[in-house]
Specification:
single chain, mainly alpha, 98% helix, rod-shaped, Peptidyl-prolyl cis-trans isomerase G
Length: 108
């Protein structure tokens, strides 16, 4: 009777150890899969953050371009006003010069 008990015991030990060997690779596969899923999620989040940064930078660039256009228009307006003022001053100086020449001719 000790032989059948010994055989049953060995069989139970064999079954139990084989179960551990089967489960261990499955657990490793699960952890590898979950690890790759986590890395994929992290990668996806990084991409989303990068996209948000790029969109934000594009908005800033658009605002800066609008400001540059506005400043260019203001500069053109200032140049136009300056040219008008210079033309007016030049006209008055020419008028005064002509008056001085006329007086010199009349006196001379």
């Amino acid at each position: 009777m000790s032989k059948p008990i010994l055989l049953v015991g060995l069989l139970v030990i064999l079954i139990v150890t084989s179960q551990f060997e089967w489960r261990q690779p499955l657990v490793e596969l699960d952890t590898a899969t979950s690890s790759s899923q986590k890395q994929q999620q992290i990668s996806d989040r990084e991409e989303a953050v990068k996209e948000k940064i790029i969109i934000s930078q594009e908005r800033h660039i658009q605002r800066l371009n609008e400001l540059v256009r506005s400043l260019q228009l203001q500069l053109l307006q200032c140049k136009g006003e300056n040219e008008t003022q210079n033309a007016t001053k030049s006209y008055h100086l020419n008028k005064q010069f002509i008056e001085v020449e006329r007086k010199q001719i009349l006196e001379g």
